[in-house]
Amino acid sequence: MTQFTRQFVLTGLFGAAGATLVGCDKPSAGGKQVVNFSVLSVEKSQTLNDLWMPFFDDMRKQTGLEINPYFAPDYTALIEAMRFKKVQAGWFSNVPGLDAIRLADGEVFAETTYPEGFAGYYSIIIVKADSKLTIDDVLKCDKSLNFGMGDAKSTSGTQAPLYYLFLPKKVEPKTCFKTVLQSGHGQNIQAVANGVLDAATNNTTALVDLESRDPELRKKVKVIWQSPEALPNDVIIYRKDLDPVIKEKLRSFFLSYGRAPGAEGERQLNVLKPLVLGGFIPGDNSHFIPVRLMEAASKLMVAQQSGDAEAIKKAQDDYAAVEKEKVDHDAQTFKQAPADPKLPAMSSSAS
User: Fold this and answer.
1) CATH assignment of 120-229, among 2.60.40.10, 3.20.20.30, 3.40.50.1220, 3.40.190.10
2) Highest mean pLDDT out of 23-37, 64-78, 319-333
3) DSSP letter string over 200-247?
4) Threshold 0.85, pTM exceeds
C-alpha cells in the first residue's frame, strides 16, 4: 500500500480537492447545507463524472443538500478525508469502512445491493486468458511469477486472499513471488491482460463491471481461484457528529432510491445500473462482524506460525470474543423501518 504521511494527506489530497471540499454544516453560497461525499477513484476522472453525476444530481434534488463529490485516489485517502472532517459521508468497502468506524468516527447507515440481489461478492485470482497457470502453480512459491495484490486495505484484493488462500498454506506473498505489485483492481486487470503480471487478485464485481464496459478486455483474463465464501457488500457511512437532520435526509434518500413507483423507479434503477447496484438496505456497524472475524483469524494464524505463546493466547482470546459477538448477533432477529413508511420493512443482516 502507498504510505501517506499526515502532512501529505492534508496538503496533497485535500489541497487538490480543496476547491470543492468546503465545511459541512456551513451553508454554501446558495444557502444550502453542504455535504462532501467520498467515493474511491477507480477510473479516469471524466469516466467517474459520467458514472456518478446522475446519482449525485438526484441526491441533491431529493435531499436539498449541496453534495460535493470527492473521488479519493486510494483507501487511505477515503479514511483520512473522513478522519479530518474533510468529508462527512462516503462509500466504503469493508476493510477501509471498518477503519473509518475505528479511526474516523464513522457510522454505517446503509448497505449496497447488487442488481441481481446477490448477498455479496467474491475475491478472485485472475491470469491471462491463454495462460496455463493453475492455483497450484501460484502456490509453488518458486519466485518465478510476477504477482499483483490489491491495496493493503482492500478486502477482496488483499485481506480475503491472505485469509482464505495464503495463510492456511503458510505462504508469504512477499517471499513467494519474483515481484509483488500492489495496485487497484482496474490496474491489475490491465497488467494481467497485457502480460505485465502473471496473476493478480481481483473481485467478481470488477469483472461484471468490466464485461459491460469493455467486453474485449474481459476476454483477455480468466479466473483460477475464487474465495469459498462471499464477502459482505459495500456500505454507506456518515460521521457520527453530522447534524441529525442531515443524517435523516441522507438516510431517507439512500433507502428509498430505486424504489419509487412506475417510471421514476425505473429511471433510478437505470442510474444505479452502471454503478453495478440494485439499491440500498438499512445497515449498522454490525455489518463488519464477518470482516473482524476474518481479521482476527488471520492474526491468529500468523501468531500460531510464529510460535510465540503470548501472542497466540492474545490472538485466541481476540478471535473468541469476535466469534461470540457473531454468534450473539446471528441469534437476534430484528427489523429496521425504511425511510418511507409506505414501504415494507426490511431485515438487516451482517453476513
Assistant:
1) 3.40.190.10
2) 64-78
3) EEEEHHHHHHHHHH-HHHHTTEEEEEE-SSPEEPPEEEEETTS-HHHH
4) no
